[in-house]
């Protein structure tokens, strides 16, 4: 099968396309998915360069490695024990924690429990970018942030993949939302009903009320002032898993980092919300699999708009 793989950790130049990678076979509880589109996430480049915790658990036997932790496609085969997904069904989802992933390829094998049926009306590239960022935001907003209509929420990085979901989920819960991003995201953020704060020209500590909840998708440069600005008794949900939580904990601040699982009910609920038009998912770049290195460069720049997605199957535009 066709795949973009790396033979060792390193920069985007490590990617190379092959067309003779063996197609994997599903185990009894797995499905084989023919991939249409794959979402690109910061975790992907942190695995590619060897810096993430997931990468540190990989050994020589895992290479050549295919990255990609979320995507949309069609069931091509099911394991003997899978009775709730059928061959030919369009699905989307994400790889569970500790799973090597593999959506940057024509086919991927995943536990059936990590995929759900895809709503007809939502395009492949949108669903491919919804699974991981959407589940992360849901975990941050509801499980950890426990957002309510009384909350004043500050979302850092609202122009990016997770931030767009987090801000809109908080708004749906009735909270008042301030969202930091550069000025080019202003109109989009306002259209959701949130208050945009341009971090390139404004000091968020001066222009927003003290938040009861901060969801921080940035960390560098935002963490220290956020701790000072947080309302007494407020919570911080930090998205980057490599963040040092000690400074907040030592100040008695309730701080946590999402650990995500491919919860089927949540994936279906997210997809239904997108399908109903209640959640706008910005996909700013759709690149062919051949341009995977370019996709990584965009995400690694730290200034992606919404989601960057790989067209794996040659989706008609
Ligand atoms: N814990 C988990 O399970 C989990 C899951 C997913 C993601 N994450 C982590 O969460 C973080 C965000 O992920 P993502 O997918 O949303 O990333 P992303 O799509 O790459 O987000 C980048 C966004 O950050 C904005 N940004 C950069 N500097 C900023 C600043 N100083 N203030 C406000 N916004 C700023 C950029 O906006 P401009 O272009 O306007 O600068 C850009 O839109 C990453 O570190 C990722 O690894 C964790």
Summarize the structure in words.
- This protein is an alpha/beta fold and 317 residues long.
- The protein folds into 2 domains: 3-130 and 281-311, Quinone Oxidoreductase, Chain A, domain 1 (Alpha-Beta Complex), CATH 3.90.180.10; 133-256, 3-Layer(aba) Sandwich (Rossmann fold).
- Helices cover 27% and strands 24% of the residues.
- It has 11 helices and 15 strands.
- The strands form 3 sheets. Strands 3, 4, 5, 6, 7, 14 and 15 form a 7-stranded mixed sheet that branches.
- The model has no long low-confidence stretch (mean pLDDT 97).
- The structure holds NADP nicotinamide-adenine-dinucleotide phosphate.
- NADP nicotinamide-adenine-dinucleotide phosphate (NAP) binds at residues 41-43, 133, 136, 156-157, 159-163, 180-182, 185, 199, 217-218, 221-222, 239-241, 257-258, 260, 299, 302-305.
- NADP nicotinamide-adenine-dinucleotide phosphate (NAP) binds next to helix 1, helix 4, helix 5 and strand 9.
Chain-wise SSE layout:
Layout: E1 3-5, E2 16-18, E3 30-40, H1 42-48, H2 53-56, E4 70-78, E5 90-94, E6 107-111, E7 115-117, H3 124-128, H4 131-144, E8 152-156, H5 161-172, E9 176-181, H6 186-192, E10 195-198, H7 204-207, E11 213-216, H8 223-229, E12 235-238, H9 246-250, E13 254-256, H10 264-275, E14 283-288, H11 292-300, E15 307-311
Parallel strand pairs: 8-9, 8-11, 9-10, 11-12, 12-13, 14-15
Antiparallel strand pairs: 1-2, 3-4, 3-6, 3-15, 4-5, 5-7
Helix pairs in contact: 4-5
The structure holds NADP nicotinamide-adenine-dinucleotide phosphate.
The site of NADP nicotinamide-adenine-dinucleotide phosphate has 32 residues, from helix 1, helix 4, helix 5 and strand 9.
């Amino acid at each position: 099968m066709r795949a973009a793989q790396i033979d060792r950790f390193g920069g985007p130049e490590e990617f190379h396309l092959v067309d003779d990678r063996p197609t994997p076979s599903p185990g009894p509880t797995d499905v084989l998915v023919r991939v249409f589109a794959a979402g690109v996430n910061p975790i992907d480049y942190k695995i590619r360069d060897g810096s993430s915790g997931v990468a540190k658990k990989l050994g020589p036997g895992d290479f050549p490695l295919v990255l990609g932790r979320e995507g949309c496609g069609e069931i091509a085969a099911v394991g003997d024990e899978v009775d709730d997904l059928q061959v030919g069904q369009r699905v989307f989802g994400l790889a569970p924690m500790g799973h090597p992933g593999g959506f940057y390829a024509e086919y991927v094998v995943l536990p059936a429990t990590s995929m759900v049926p895809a709503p007809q009306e939502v395009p492949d590239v949108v669903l491919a970018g919804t699974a991981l960022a959407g589940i992360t935001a849901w975990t941050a907003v509801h499980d950890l942030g426990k957002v309510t209509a009384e909350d004043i929420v500050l979302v850092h990085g609202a122009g990016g993949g997770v931030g767009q979901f987090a801000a809109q989920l908080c708004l749906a819960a009735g909270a008042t939302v301030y969202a930091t991003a550069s000025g080019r995201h202003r109109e989009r953020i306002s259209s959701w009903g949130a208050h945009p704060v341009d971090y390139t020209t404004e000091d968020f500590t001066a222009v927003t009320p003290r938040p009861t909840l901060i969801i921080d998708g940035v960390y560098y440069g935002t963490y220290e002032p956020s701790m000072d600005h947080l309302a007494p008794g407020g919570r911080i949900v930090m998205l980057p898993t490599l963040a040092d939580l000690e400074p907040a904990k030592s100040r008695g601040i309730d701080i946590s980092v999402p650990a995500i699982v491919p919860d089927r009910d949540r994936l279906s609920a997210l997809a239904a919300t997108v399908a109903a038009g209640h959640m706008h998912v910005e996909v700013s770049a759709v690149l062919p699999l051949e341009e995977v290195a370019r996709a990584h460069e965009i995400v690694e720049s730290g200034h992606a708009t919404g989601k960057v997605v790989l067209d794996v199957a040659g989706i008609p535009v």
